[in-house]
């Protein structure tokens, strides 16, 4: 940035840079806006590079991007790469499946695990995502995987449960005939 480059910001630009520094949700924009602000405060590009832990060439690049596109020029650019196999149909089926109990779909388990869910979706869509990519997709959609509280109620005999519940209620109502004595199951004993 030679002497021909304008390093001073207008009031409107300065306001936009300060707003981005303090409130933009993108961390890279906050960092780059801070660098632009430091340049505005007459810091040398090499010093700003050192303060922000980047190279001077990066500072020049950020300044040029700021000049061309303002705050949006400081955001990360979209990266090219292979498009995701999880298309809109896949995403819709994923959300619908997460709202459905596996028992309702004919499975003998009550809780979706990541592997069960991704294999089920692979059967339905012919798209099998890797475990890591599938987990990232769930995070992107805002779903969190929590350790399930195991509930085996669906495997229990309902009649036997009801008999046990009635017996327990009866035992709670029945007064004890004699006070309980000392327990013989204690781990603590007296020496003789």
For the structure shown, list the relevant keywords:
192 residues; mainly alpha; 8 helices
Structure commentary:
The chain has helices spanning 11-23, 27-40, 45-52, 56-69, 88-98, 114-125, 131-140, 158-173. It is an all-alpha fold. Among the domains are: 11-74; 88-140. The radius of gyration is 32 Å and the shape is elongated. The mean pLDDT is 83.
Sheet with most strands = none
Q: Termini, distance in Å?
A: 92 Å
Whole-number radius of gyration? 32 Å
Percent strand equals under 5%
Oligomer: single chain
Q: What shape does the CA trace take? A: elongated
Determine the number of helices (DSSP H or I, runs of at least 4 residues).
Answer: 8
Rounded mean pLDDT is 83
Q: Runs with pLDDT <50, length 5+? A: none
Tell me the layout of helices and strands:
Elements: H1 11-23, H2 27-40, H3 45-52, H4 56-69, H5 88-98, H6 114-125, H7 131-140, H8 158-173
């Amino acid at each position: 940035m030679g002497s021909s480059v304008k390093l001073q910001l207008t009031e409107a630009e300065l306001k936009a840079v300060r707003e981005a520094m303090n409130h933009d949700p993108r961390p890279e924009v906050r960092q780059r806006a801070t660098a632009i602000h430091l340049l505005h405060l007459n810091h040398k590009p090499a010093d700003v590079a050192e303060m922000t832990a980047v190279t001077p060439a990066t500072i020049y690049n950020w300044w040029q991007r700021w000049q061309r596109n303002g705050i949006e020029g400081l955001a990360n650019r979209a990266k090219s790469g292979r498009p995701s196999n999880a298309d809109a149909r896949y995403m819709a089926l994923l959300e619908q499946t997460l709202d459905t109990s596996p028992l309702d779909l004919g499975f003998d388990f009550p809780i979706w695990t990541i592997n069960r869910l991704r294999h089920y979706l692979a059967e339905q869509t012919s798209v099998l995502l890797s475990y890591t990519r599938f987990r990232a997709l769930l995070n992107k959609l805002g779903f969190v995987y929590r350790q399930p509280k195991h509930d085996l109620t669906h495997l229990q005999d309902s009649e036997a449960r009801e008999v046990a519940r009635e017996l327990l209620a009866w035992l709670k109502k029945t007064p004890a005939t004699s006070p309980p004595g000392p327990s013989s199951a204690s781990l603590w004993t007296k020496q003789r």
